[in-house]
Amino acid sequence: MAHILRLSALAVLLLSACCWADSELQEEDTAEELSVSELSVSELLERANSHLSEFRSDNDPILIEGDIAIDSETERNADPCTSSGCKWGKASDGKVYVPYYIANHFSSREKAIITRGLESFSSFSCIRFRPSKSSDRDWLSIESKNGCYSFVGRRGGKQVVSLARSGCLYHGTVQHELLHALGFNHEQTRSDRDNHIKVLLQNVVSGMQHNFRKIATLNQGSPYDYNSVMQYHRYAFSKNKQPTMVPIPNANVSFGNAKEMSRNDIARLNTLYKCSSISAKRPPPTIGLVSRGVGVVLAQVEKVMAQEAEVEANRAVVGAQVAVVVARIAAVEAQVAAVEARVAVVEAQLAEVEA
Ligand SMILES: [Zn+2]
């Protein structure tokens, strides 16, 4: 009897020891998660990619600007590829379908973070990331490789977007790498950045100055955005804890702290891909909004006309663009018909009221 008691006492001791250890571990994890959640996308990327060169294998692509992959050094000064065909194609329904594959080595929790990032784009743009099919020619292969990185724009065939399991699986980081894959560069490399950011090369780690080179970016009239998810932070690549970038004219303005895509990030994505308001998820106009609906339709007609002019100017892409324009005209006509129907309803109601 005493023997059994001793045994069970021992069992209780062992059990509690195991569970104390567990809960301590969990607390450490939670503390880590909490401090990480304070970090901006820019800081997360720097943290995840800080020791990559030590672990690089020959199979890894060359990384520039921290997380942009290139196949060879000669691409370093490449023009923004969106003007030379690296945008993803638009379907006849006005949406841009980007096929993706998520590697099996991610846990279901990690996959959920990635999927949330992918799906966020459909709530504010005409970009639709969808699972790849065997017939897809170009697709994103989302894998946990050495750090967080992506190529800029559509590369043709399979292109890796690396989201390392340690350090890259945050909503904003996923959006940042996907924006690279959609053709966007870092904010501080914009052609007009010298009007908004003073780069202090004397504080940059030697050999890292290329991260601050300017690119002849296609800015599409979008404002420079300190809150862009693509803007690096004040001390990025600093060798001496002094700032590497200072805003102009007010040096104290905070920047580089984004945790997800800003309104400007969304607006310029919609501009680059010419996402029309038709393909956005928009509730049907109510009767009181008929005149606004007409305005929207007119704006759409103007947009279509502008696109037709563009088609004239660019014979090389005439075929594809005409198809898009035709689809838009059909969509606009459908909307005009819908608005006319609503106007008829309003008129009928007015007649009723007057009667
Ligand atoms: Zn980046």
Characterization of this structure:
The protein is globular, with a radius of gyration of 26 Å. The chain has 355 residues and is of the alpha/beta class. The longest helix has 37 residues. It has a domain of 212 residues: Collagenase (Catalytic Domain). Strands 4-3-5-7-6 form a five-stranded mixed sheet. Strands 1-2 form a two-stranded antiparallel sheet. Strands 8-9 form a two-stranded antiparallel sheet. α4 packs across α5 and α7 packs antiparallel against α8. It binds zinc ion. The site of zinc ion (ZN) has 6 residues, from α5. Zinc ion (ZN) binds next to α5.
Terminal residue distance: 98 Å
> In the CATH hierarchy, what is the class of the domain at 62-273?
Alpha Beta
Looking at CATH, the homologous superfamily of the domain at 62-273 is Collagenase (Catalytic Domain)
The shape is globular
Strand content: 5-15%
The overall average pLDDT, rounded, is 78
The strands making up the biggest β-sheet line up spatially as: 4-3-5-7-6
The low-pLDDT segments are 7-30, 73-79, 278-291
Binding site for Zn(2+): 176, 180, 186
Pfam families: Astacin
Keywords: Hydrolase, Metal-binding, Metalloprotease, Protease, Signal, Zinc
Protein name: Metalloendopeptidase
